[in-house]
Amino acid sequence: SEAEKTFQRFAVLGDSSSSGAEINNKNFSKLCQDCGITDGKTVTSTDVDTVFNKVKAKDAGTITFQRFTEAMKDLSQKRFKEKSPDQGLEDIFKLMEGKNPATTGGFYQAAVASAMDQHTDTRKYTGSHEEPLDYIGKGITGQKETTDNSEYGRSCKGAATYDKKKQKRK
Which residues form the signal peptide (predicted)? Predict the structure, then answer.
């Protein structure tokens, strides 16, 4: 069936040695997310994890398609409350038809790009960082020396004596 094909595509995701006969919790959650079974309101990621742990064997980390069908029946009761378990399961399988795992690289690249944009987009700068301090003419850095050499030392006691002492040494 179409649901079983979708199950197999998600079961082998990230595991080249997998035959596609069993799916782990991570790929099960991804399947529910990518196929629109989780909606964030009636079916959440917590519900998905709970149902997975309920149908799997105690010592197992994966479930077969048969147990997967049981899990989907449980989730269909949460998602489609007004329908019978069998009708809800059919509706869940319709959501799964023809679905493939979404590429994981796209999310990571988008997240990195977004993080980098925060630092390089000058429209988001505020306050003292609004205009870059550079040699182009914005700000005073690079245009002239800003240190004050008029005093000798830290206090005013030796003010204006630096140049005099320098001349005496010559």
Answer: none
